[in-house]
Amino acid sequence: MKTCASALLLAATLTAPAVGAAPAPTMCARGDQPVFSCPLAGSKKTVSLCATAGEPHGGGQFYYAYGGDVSKPELRYPGAGDEAKFTRTHLMFGGNTGGFAYAFTNRGFKYVIYSISGSNNLEDQGLVVLKDGETKPIRQSRCEAGKVSVAPDRSLIEKTLQWESDPEIEVQGVPTP
Predict the structure, then answer these.
(1) Most buried of 21, 52, 109, 112, CB within 10 angstroms?
(2) Structure confidence by residue, pLDDT tens digits, 99-121
(3) pLDDT, position 21
(4) Separation between Cα atoms, residue 6 and residue 40, nearest integer Å
(5) pTM for this one?
(6) Contact present, 126 and 42 (Cβ < 8 Å)
(7) Backbone angles phi, psi at 141, to 5 degrees
(8) Contact 68, 141 (CB under 8 A)
(9) Sheet with strand 33-39: strands edge to edge
(10) What is the pLDDT of residues 110-150, one digit of tens each?
(11) In angstroms, rounded to a whole number, what is the distance separating the alpha carbons of residues 49 and 157?
(12) CA angle, corner 157, sides to 152 and 159, nearest 5?
């Protein structure tokens, strides 16, 4: 487990923006920290997994936010009064390639935010949306190249490592069209 955790922290570090680079857009509320965030290529939308203020010390919560205006997200999960159930799945492929996928199910749809990186400068991050129970995505959007933000706070990543793994993603990988 320590090896997987170290590999995941290394992958998170490799996909983090360079020092001095403009911060990637985020749908996280002011004061909250993006765990993973990126603008989606070919749209004016951003997808973010966020931690509320105080999360590194156990006081906050994680949430997903999607849209073009941080003050009015098109989708925020969990909603008021709902309990969040996120998964985090470690992805491993041949050729020194791997990554992670965060997922949750909400109102009949499964949302998967993923990040894969590997040798030969392979970088693939994005959002996949599936109708619950289906294997083909109804939507797949890739992140804009070079604009992915991953939490620099190791304690946030370590917290997500405690989440259950998604058995479907574990077996089949990130769904593709």
Answers:
(1) 112
(2) 999 999 999 999 999 999 988 78
(3) 52
(4) 28
(5) 0.83
(6) no
(7) -125, 135
(8) no
(9) 75-77, 62-67, 46-51, 33-39, 149-150
(10) 999 999 998 878 889 999 999 988 989 999 999 999 999 98
(11) 11
(12) 140
